[in-house]
Amino acid sequence: MTFAELIAPLQATERYGSPNVEVTDLTDDSRGVKPGSVFVAVKGGRVDGHAFVRDAVAAGATALVLQDRLPTGLPIPMIRVPDSRRALGLLASRLRQDPSSRLRLIGVTGTNGKTTVTYLCQSVLEAAGRRVGVIGTVAYHIGPERLPAPHTTPGAVELQGLLARMVEAGLDSTVMEVSSHALALDRTAGCEFDVAVYTNLTQDHLDFHVDMEDYFKAKLRLFTGLTLAGNKSRPKRAIVNVDDPRGHHVCGASRVPVWTYSIQKQSDIQAADVRLSLAGTSFTAVTPSGRFPVESRLVGEHNVYNMLAAVGVGLHEQVSPDAIREGIRSVVNVPGRFERVEAGQGFTVVVDYAHTEDALARLLATAQALKTGRIITVFGCGGDRDRGKRPRMGRVAAQQSDLVFLTSDNPRSEDPMAIIAEVEAGLREALDPARGRYRVVADRRQAIEAAVREAKPGDMVLIAGKGHEDYQIIGGTRVHFDDREVACEAIRKGGP
Q: Which residues have C-beta within 8 Å of that of residue 487, sequence separation ≥ 6?
């Protein structure tokens, strides 16, 4: 492909040099430049790619795409565009022959539930004979291949590369978690979605977003960008949880037809006759295609919402109710989402990714509904992240737990005890001394071991915050740490 062909869709405000040169690669990292590369200079939060333009040229860049005024004295073609970050996604898609146009692309956004919804959607589509890829927090799935996921939604160049690999592997559909960071940073530019799912919005990521309104506006971009125009002939749809306070705003902003889902109110897709137990969940799905029973090993009311979203995706994708039921039934667990740890103990141990106030509240509400003994909660808050949620999470834990072990999560560059103090302020404020109590055990392994030693038959130990993660970040060091492994070892060492 020539540079001229690559940049054809862009509205360049300045041009220099002949664009009739062959290009083979695209990057926004000057360290990844090689002969044949187009270097796109992007203004980042900490680093401005324009500062590395001459480094890119020295490394062999064939052409440049810039947002600032074009420099003089460089021997290669270049253009200036109004928004180089957005241009990066569009060019990455074009260089890979627009892979999303050859896939059914389902995007799932919201604070909580994204991972479970993507796993459910994958299983529902596979039950109908589809070949499905997944891009999300736990891993990237390309057929049977599993790749580690450093980001929920990868950068634009990597994302288009993954989609292209899925097309090459013969997949026909992709279900993708779409984070607010990805939407705010235009990582999904060049992706043509067929379905967009909205799960909910609660406080998180205010270390990145200015406020909750800014956070919501980022999420909304998935829906305002979903249009009937595009390269695909099949209809598009938004699927929206209207039990969430902002759900109706999402419906109003959508440019394509909407299906709503709910447990509490009238909607297109509803759950009736909901039954919850520690063994699983059942309900009747009331849908535009009729009523049908749904059964799942997944636990908790929050998972009823996740299943309703998957029902909506399945129906829009013309999957039969029987295949939808089978797909949902086939998902026995989602890594790190209310994941049971079984090592012969007489009490329940659950590892969950809950790392926001709302997710922790939902986890504890599920535990309250299912408990036969005490609820013992182990949790902490991550460093270098939204500090505002720390005391709020402390309050939630205090209100719904019989015993809390307050510990470290991923402290990163912060002092673990300083983080704990901020969580503890909220916890102490809400604690009812007659009902609950807490201990501070900064070492996460020791906290899990102490919780397991404390547990008696019938109790439920909830280990929250890290879920599927198999590492802990302390300072600048990343060490192996898996809550599930540590809990299992602790049970074998001394649980009743």
A: 341, 343, 349, 351, 448, 452, 461, 463
**For range 383-405, the mean pLDDT:** 95
- The 10 Å CB-count burial string (b at 16+, else e) for 383-422 is bebbbebbbbbbbbbbebbbbbbbbbbbbbebebeebbeb
Give residue for tokens 């994941």. Answer: 339
Q: Is the CB of residue 129 less than 8 Å from the CB of residue 60?
A: no
Report, as an integer, the average pLDDT of 189-195: 96
Kindly write down the DSSP assignment for every residue of 130-150, as one continuous string.
--EEEESSSEEEETTEEEE-S
Split at pLDDT 50, 70, 90, the class of 36 is very high
pTM: 0.91
pLDDT at 388 over 70: yes
pLDDT digits (tens, 9 = 90+) for 430-485: 998 877 799 999 999 999 999 999 999 999 999 999 999 999 999 999 999 999 99
**DSSP assignments along 5-51, one per residue:** HHTTTS--SEEES----B--EEES-GGG--TTEEEE--B-SS-BGGG
Indicate the pairing of strand 139-142 with strand 145-148. antiparallel
Residue 346 · residue 354 · CB < 8 Å: no
Amino acid identity at 129: G
Q: What residue ranges define each of the domains in the chain, with the CATH number in brackets?
A: 3-93 (3.40.1390.10), 99-330 (3.40.1190.10), 339-494 (3.90.190.20)
**In the block, residue with structure tokens 């999300």:** 136
128 DSSP 8-state letter: T
Question: Any idea what the Cα angle at residue 99 is, between residues 22 and 241, rounded to 5°?
Answer: 145
**If DSSP codes are grouped into helix, strand and coil, which group holds residue 204?**
coil
CA–CA distance, 260 with 268 (Å, rounded to integer):
5
Structure tokens at 462: 């909830």
